């Protein structure tokens, strides 16, 4: 698959197809356990305790990776999958340390918040610090020759490396595209890591090279996390992961080899540390909106609305009639109840409208978290003369060539997508969401298949758009124009 986003020279662009063979799965409990604490001088002390009564056991199985392995664990319990992927066969798919360094040094490619370096002094949790990229060569050289432990983290790697994006579509396609987060890859020298922390989402931690040890504890509530964070740090580091409550002060210790995957549901305490200088870990998270984000988006929608409920203000028509019998406290229950009714009426005006609620939720779910607004390349900004010579000077030219059988349309890598179908007042509306925007078409049977192929990252060829209606052709033209779709001669 060809990407319109220029890629680092060191990134290999060929996709190595995996062929998994089925074999029986054997489940084993991981027996190695670790208790974490502090000694008297404030340095982290690791004390193995195989017989600790409160240690959490993490089930383990052997690959190959499959969503079937997660049936009993998704959202419930951690799972270690040994040899989930054949690491040696994926060296041309998984970015190397050299590839990550090249991305982190390229200020033309990544946005300022897509690359971070996290450093710390060995043994001291209060020394963790974060620095945002892009970085200079001298910064990287300084790390190599310095005395601090360090980790380089690059987000949105699947946007820049199309082979990785294709692989993620294949292996993590069981997640709806709007639920799957970006490819975050961390590389570290021995001793490097980002410290003990908690994530609010499901995450798959794949060891792509080298070795990393993970300490995994039980879940921690948001309030417990807030009470345990070390203050005044640029990184969210837990002060002492061994004592956040009485029932979970011991941790399972896991050593991941290349190809191993550790799945963690939301809010499990974990702490990864590189055991080798060639340590690279790929993190694929499952993003989801929070209640606060949804409420905030409802409020934003109301502020931009001129509907009766959105602009309504509190009134008290009986105020003057109640002067003589006014209660002691001026903010009465009647006033508060009236305002509550106003708010709920305004909220329900959105949530009870299937068209508006669908649009609000799906736009929020597909918004980019880090990428700048110029992450997409509109057709009229393409500078590749060879590409334009093949596909023409306008989006309509490109679609016309696809309809002639000269190639296929692909969705851009590294962008969240969602599709929905809303029936309202007897009209069926098919919708595609991407990058926080929406495209829709009504009562078009072919649109269902086409939009779902786009969401799943499948190519759109002449065979998929035979009998294309004018509205659907216009929708595809708009997607090409805005950089959501691009044309390629690759039909694989």
Write a structural description.
The chain is α+β, with helices and mostly antiparallel strands. It folds into three domains: 60-286, Jelly Rolls, CATH 2.60.120.650; 291-314 and 333-352, no CATH class; 379-488, 3-Layer(aba) Sandwich (Malonyl-Coenzyme A Acyl Carrier Protein, domain 2), CATH 3.40.366. It has helices at residues 97-104, 137-145, 157-160, 162-171, 222-228, 291-303, 308-311, 333-351, 354-366, 385-391, 395-403, 445-456, 470-481, and strands at residues 28-29, 33-38, 44-48, 59-62, 79-82, 115-120, 129-132, 149-154, 180-188, 202-209, 212-219, 250-256, 261-264, 268-274, 279-286, 408-411, 417-424, 427-434, 437-442, 485-488. The chain has a ten-stranded mixed β-sheet. Strands 3-2-12-11-14 form a five-stranded antiparallel β-sheet, with no helix packed on it. Strand 6 and strand 7 form a beta hairpin. The radius of gyration is 26 Å and the shape is globular. The N and C termini lie close together (8 Å). Residues 1-54 and 243-249 have low confidence and may be disordered. Residues 164-303 form the JmjC domain. This is Bifunctional lysine-specific demethylase and histidyl-hydroxylase. One of its GO terms (molecular function) is 2-oxoglutarate-dependent dioxygenase activity. Belongs to the ROX family. Its EC number is 1.14.11.-.
């Amino acid at each position: 698959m060809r990407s319109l986003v220029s890629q680092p020279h060191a990134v290999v662009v060929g996709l190595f197809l995996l062929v998994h063979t089925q074999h029986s799965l054997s489940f084993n409990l991981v027996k190695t356990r670790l208790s974490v604490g502090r000694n008297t001088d404030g340095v982290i002390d690791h004390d193995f305790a195989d017989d600790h009564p409160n240690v959490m056991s993490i089930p383990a199985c052997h690959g190959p990776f499959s969503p079937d392995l997660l049936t009993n664990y998704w959202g419930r319990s951690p799972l270690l999958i040994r040899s989930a992927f054949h690491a040696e066969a994926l060296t041309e798919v998984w970015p190397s340390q050299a590839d990550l360094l090249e991305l982190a040094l390229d200020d033309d490619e990544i946005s300022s918040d897509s690359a971070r370096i996290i450093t710390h002094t060995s043994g001291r949790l209060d020394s963790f610090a974060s620095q945002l990229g892009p970085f200079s060569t001298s910064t990287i050289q300084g790390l190599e020759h310095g005395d601090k432990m360090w980790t380089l983290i690059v987000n949105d790697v699947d946007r820049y490396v199309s082979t990785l994006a294709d692989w993620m579509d294949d292996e993590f396609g069981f997640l709806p595209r709007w639920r799957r987060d970006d490819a975050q890859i961390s590389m570290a020298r021995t001793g490097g890591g980002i410290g003990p922390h908690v994530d609010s989402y499901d995450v798959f931690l794949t060891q792509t090279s080298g070795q990393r040890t993970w300490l995994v504890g039980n879940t921690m509530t948001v309030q417990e996390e807030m009470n345990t964070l070390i203050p005044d740090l640029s990184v969210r580091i837990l002060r002492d992961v061994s004592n956040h409550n009485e029932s979970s002060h011991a941790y399972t210790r896991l050593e991941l080899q290349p190809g191993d995957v550790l799945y963690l549901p939301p809010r499990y305490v974990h702490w990864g540390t590189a055991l080798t200088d060639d340590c690279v870990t790929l993190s694929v998270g499952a993003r989801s909106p929070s209640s606060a984000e949804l409420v905030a988006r409802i409020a934003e929608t109301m502020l931009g609305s001129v509907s009766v409920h959105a602009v309504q203000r509190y009134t008290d028509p009986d105020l003057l009639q109640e002067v003589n019998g006014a209660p002691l406290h001026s903010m009465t229950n009647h006033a508060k109840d009236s305002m509550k009714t106003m708010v709920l009426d305004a909220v329900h005006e959105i949530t009870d409208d299937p068209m508006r609620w669908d649009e609000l939720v799906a736009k929020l779910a597909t918004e980019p978290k880090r990428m700048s607004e110029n992450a997409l390349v509109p057709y009229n900004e393409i500078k590749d003369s060879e590409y334009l010579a093949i596909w023409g000077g306008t989006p309509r030219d490109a679609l016309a060539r696809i309809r002639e059988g000269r190639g296929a349309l692909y969705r851009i890598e590294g962008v969240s997508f969602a599709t929905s179908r809303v029936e309202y007042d007897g009209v069926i509306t098919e919708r595609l969401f991407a990058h926080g925007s929406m495209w829709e078409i009504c009562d078009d049977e072919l649109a269902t298949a086409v939009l779902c192929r786009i969401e799943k990252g499948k190519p759109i060829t002449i065979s998929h758009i035979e009998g294309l209606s004018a509205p659907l052709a216009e929708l595809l033209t708009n997607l090409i124009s805005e950089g959501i779709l691009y044309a390629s001669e690759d039909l694989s």
